[in-house]
Predict the 3D structure of the following.
Amino acid sequence: MTLTIGGSLTVGRLGFGAMRITGRGIWGPPPDEGTAIALLRRVVEKGVTFIDTADSYGPGVSETLIAKALYPYPAGLVIASKGGLTRSGPGYWDVDCRPEHLRQVCADSLRRLRLERIELYQLHSVDRRVPIEDSIGTLVDLQREGKIRHIGISNVSAAELSRARKVAEIVSVQNSYNLRDRSSDALVDICAGAGIAFIPFYPLAKGRLARPDSQLVRIAERHDATPGQIALAWLLHRSPVMLPIPGTSSLAHFEENFGAASIRLSAEEVRALSAG
């Protein structure tokens, strides 16, 4: 299963989120750098062609590890990054989407990733102090300068997506979405209609999906799969523009997540899961 982003980036529909290869609280280096590097290399060996990261993961740690593990990058691998969130400590996130900040963090990401151009660069959030038109306009300028190829946005409403699309061609939306959190349901359908990739973060709801007597557990047992694998399979069935990016620091957990790509749910199972 593949998805073409922006008419030019064809990737497998199950990507990898590189947030959790950092330290506790998404802060600092991982407990074992060698394990993180081995995981990233295994991700590519298994055929994953889309890795999502951000300058704020670490901060700077995730991007640095990706380059250390994978550079020079194999043909067909898309590294997507984001800018617009800042960090003051473990677990703390603040928004800064001022044009000057976005310019600086994009330059920093290019340096850490050892790239001349980032194939997909996403506005990580919306800054209530800065019109989204100004933030996206800065990304358009960076696009014209050849520093980024395609523009995406994250943590947005349908109205904010509409405003952003008046300034630039938006090829992806990255919002929280999973079996428990359907708050972006309408946005998923808007993206499908417009041919925009929808990248659900927290696709496994931080591991809080399954009740012992749930439809999810029963369907997982039927497929000899884990509830997490079924939750990812449901996302893939939910929309043809869906590009889940389950993240982990564990090689075994990655292998489990990757197995979801081969699970085929029946129409009845999809309806049952969708109904909750």
